Amino acid sequence: MIATQETIDATAAIFDDLRCQKNTSLDNLLETPDGRRILSCIQCGTCAGTCPYGEHMDYPPRRIINMLQRGLIDEVFRSDSMLRCVSCYACMAKCPRNIRLSDVLLPLVKEQTLIHLTEMPAELQKSLQNTLRYGNPMGESSRKRAAWTATAGVPVPTIGEKGGVADILWFVECYTSYYARGQDNSRATARLFHALGLDFAILGNEEKCAGDCGQLTWESGLFETLTDYNMVVFGKYKFKRLVTGDPHAFNAFRIRYPLFGFDYPVDHTTPLLHGHLDRLKPMLKKKLDCTVTYHDSCCLGRRAGCYEPPRELLRAIPGVKLVEMTHNRVNAICCGGGGGGMWLDTFFKAKGMERLSERRIREAIRTGADVLAVSCPYEISRFEDALKTVGHDKPIVVRDVVELLADSLGD
Ligand code: SF4
Ligand code: SF4
User: Fold this and answer.
1) How far is the CA of 271 from the centre of ligand 2 (A)?
2) pLDDT tens readout for residues 374-392
3) What pLDDT, on a 0 to 100 scale, did the predictor assign at position 288?
4) How confident is the model at residue 120 (pLDDT cuts 50, 70, 90)?
5) Does ligand 1 lie within 6 Å of residue 95's CB atom?
6) Which of the listed residues 116, 145, 162 is the one where a domain comes to its end?
7) Is there an atom of ligand 1 within 6 Å of 62 CB?
8) Ligand 2 pocket check for 85: Cβ under 6 Å
């Protein structure tokens, strides 16, 4: 099913209109507005058919709903089907009844699966423990969170250094603070913000993970701990909008944080920069001379309906020729990193499952592009890793849209 931009926008609006309920559990789910939608399921199987790991699940979404309706949901908890869900939003985006599978039902089932699991995959457990203890899944010191700013090449002030006031609070997030290739994204973003003269600041070492993966990976308690912490920090400062380059954090702030009193406008960096394209375009003076194919992040694409802004930014770069992969926009193949998938590759391999990042990078290679462009810091590491294991005759590199834009900035 190929969706038009109009149907995509309409779908995103439907899901955003339906606010998540803070205290929804599987016991009371069917009495909520989301539950009533679940009961409208026509068992068409579109969700199972579109799921990238559907054939590896004993209980894909259609069967979960069937078991819930029959009062047999406990059987689902004893299966590890939901460990294979990478929160790609494909089932939710395609469901003809607009049932919020990835937002509401699947996280609740995942949480119960965790309780019943005899052994949690070690990498996932470690990342969640690190996030609780250190505020980031890598287990890095919180005192080093803003260390990357020393190499930014432009000033990156903390909001504290700016007297507690800024137009834009830039929530940098974990991979873009600590992971070496993620820091390239942060440095590029800082250069672009400076070029545009934006009044921005970061939280610096006060920032902790937004918690999206905790929430979608069974750990609602961890998510609430992080939310409570971040809300207290936000309350200390004055800012007009929050911006982040991480689409997972973007959705957490848009969809979950309002349940905890968060009421700031939120942008992802890519659509924010697109909003400044008239001013940005004359600054893009360096020709990059390359063919680029763009990978739609699940959180920015299917969940937020943002498909065209990254493409228009790429087309604005002199010398860039944009080509599409077979699966694009709402049909894009997930990189496999969401919903805890970042830390489940060993588990997937042990189960004989293909890494989705490898499936996707093969599609990118087939376009003949020189560059695979992304808008999510997870994807840089996932696709760069996949490139090491998938054969390709012609070199292809993975770059974030912001990195390509910053490369093209004139002096
Ligand atoms: S796609 Fe929607 S309506 Fe169809 S089986 Fe799945 S949940 Fe039910
Ligand atoms: S969110 Fe994606 S991985 Fe999870 S069940 Fe739905 S289609 Fe499958």
Assistant:
1) 25
2) 999 999 999 999 999 998 8
3) 98
4) confident
5) yes
6) 116
7) yes
8) yes
Return the higher-pLDDT residue of 5 and 301: 301
Residue 42, ligand 1, Cβ within 6 A: yes
pLDDT of amino acid 406: 98
Centroid of chain to Cα 356: 15
Write out the E strands in 172-263.
200-202, 238-244
Amino acid present at 331: N
Pocket test for ligand 1, best of 42, 51, 67, 98 (most atoms within 8 A of CB): 42
| Opening angle at CA 188, ends 393 and 88, nearest 5 | 65
If one residue of 88, 89, 344 were mutated to test the ligand 2 pocket, choosing by the most ligand atoms within 8 A of its CB, it would be 88
Q: pTM of the prediction?
A: 0.94
Range of the domain at 243: 122-275
Q: What's the token pair of residue 61?
A: 């979404």
User: What pLDDT score does 1 carry?
Assistant: 37
Residues 256, 319, single domain; the answer is no
For 241-275, letters b (16+ CB in 10 Å) and e give ebbbbbbbbbbbbbbbbeeeebeeebbbbbbbbbe
Element (H, E) at 276: none
Between 11 and 153, where is the model more confident? 153
Give yes or no for a contact between 250 and 256, defined as CB atoms under 8 angstroms apart. no
Domain final residue, candidates 241, 275, 309? 275
Measured distance CA(282)–CA(271) in Å, rounded: 18
User: What is the SS3 assignment for 29?
Assistant: helix
User: What is the tens place of the pLDDT at every residue in 151-185?
Assistant: 999 999 999 999 999 999 999 999 999 999 999 99
pLDDT in tens, 91-106: 999 999 999 999 889 9
Shortest-distance Cα residue to atom 5 of ligand 2: 85
Residue 228 and residue 315 in one domain: no
